[in-house]
Specification:
By secondary structure, the chain is of the alpha/beta class. The protein starts with 7 loop residues before the first strand and ends in a 7-residue tail after the last strand.
């Protein structure tokens, strides 16, 4: 009989709600309950709303509690997506996933104070988060958009995984060739919930329980899996 720690679970740590400070009014969804139902229908066990340049504690708490009503439940982690400045002056982005077992009110206040569009480089924003436990996952290869970070932006910095929507993206292939020890993840970046998963059909999976600690370990050890979906249910 398979140990529960050997069971693969699906994760999606790049989702958006109307609370996004940059484009919240453009987020298309019906309700928080409907978003959870969509995640459940797609067998997502671990998720995060990484809204643009903001973290809303009340929303995070509410979505956590709503998810408890489902069995098996969807576990949510606190997160944020930040607009950054590349070293060449262009726009770049990264998501940051936080350990929920820390002072999230303090985190909300801190994010409100520091998160401004295109104000920090990747390293500068990492420095702003030094008092928190978090995972840093820069955008490296996202379809046709150019809001990705380049090798010179992330080298010698904390990088817990590289986020892509396209495994053949030129920038991603260049970086992973030079840094084969980086973990790779692919998340949906869903803004329009009627199109879930919106920006990639790639699926990211880890073995074990849906927790921050397990996620952190699996990314560190490169024991996560990115694959194409298939017709049969997982």
């Amino acid at each position: 009989m398979k140990n529960m720690n050997d069971k693969k679970i699906k994760i999606d740590l790049h989702l958006h709600s109307p609370y996004s400070s940059t484009n919240g009014t453009k987020i298309k969804w019906t309700s928080e309950e409907e978003a959870i139902r969509i995640l459940k229908d797609n067998n997502i066990a671990l998720a995060s709303f990484t809204d643009h340049n903001t973290f809303n504690f009340d929303f995070f708490t509410r979505i956590q509690n709503l998810a408890l009503e489902y069995s098996p439940k969807v576990v949510f982690l606190p997160g944020i997506e930040v607009d950054l400045v590349r070293k060449d002056g262009k726009k770049g982005q990264s998501i940051f996933i936080f350990n929920p077992k820390q002072d999230l009110i303090k985190l909300q206040k801190h994010i409100k104070k520091i998160a401004r569009k295109w104000m920090y480089t990747y390293q500068e924003f990492l420095d702003q988060l030094k008092d928190f436990d978090f995972l840093a996952i820069p955008h490296i290869g996202k379809g046709s958009t150019e809001d990705f970070l380049k090798q010179e932006d992330i080298e010698s910095c904390q990088v817990d995984a590289l986020e892509v929507t396209n495994l053949n993206h030129t920038n991603y292939k260049k970086i992973i060739k030079s840094n084969p020890n980086y973990s790779t993840v692919a998340f949906s970046d869903t803004h329009a919930w009627n199109k879930y998963p919106q920006h990639t059909k790639l699926i990211t999976m880890i073995e074990g329980d849906p927790s921050y600690e397990n996620l952190k370990t699996k990314l560190l050890e490169r024991k996560n899996f990115v694959k194409q979906p298939h017709k049969e249910s997982e």
